[in-house]
Amino acid sequence: MSNGTAAAIVVGVDGSPQSVEALRWAARTAEALGAGIKAVGAWEYPPEYAGYVPLGSDNFDEITRKQVDKAVHEAFGDDVPAGLSTSVVFGHPAKVLVHESEDATMLVVGRRGHGGFRGLLLGSVSAACVAHASCPVLVIHEDPDAGQGAQDRRA
Known about the structure:
Layout: E1 8-12, H1 17-33, E2 36-43, H2 60-76, E3 84-90, H3 93-100, E4 106-110, H4 124-132, E5 137-140, H5 150-154
Parallel strand pairs: 1-2, 1-4, 2-3, 4-5
Helix pairs in contact: 1-2, 3-4
């Protein structure tokens, strides 16, 4: 963390249940550390777009913004923690989050494995964050009680 920079917990948000749970963990941790929360969504053009669609003519930024906003709402409802900010950044998610970690107190990401044996593994973004972040990284699994409301979990 840079000198003079306020404490912040960066959360990678992609709209998955794990990223919603990551927001909840960040809120609990931020309160204990007196830190703010920065929810970050990242996007890049799919490889198949190269040469076929003029760059700048899509709405990936808007879609990502809606995913971040929806995840924040799913995590907190109308009770959004003070000090929470959101941003949407163009770039590969792992690179964006590693860059954001340079001024962070902590980086929180969801694990994106898929059931069975593969469910025990980290996804490529979370693995890259663990390997390259400039701060501690907390990797969150999906909440087993995902059907409960945010208010029920905090009680």
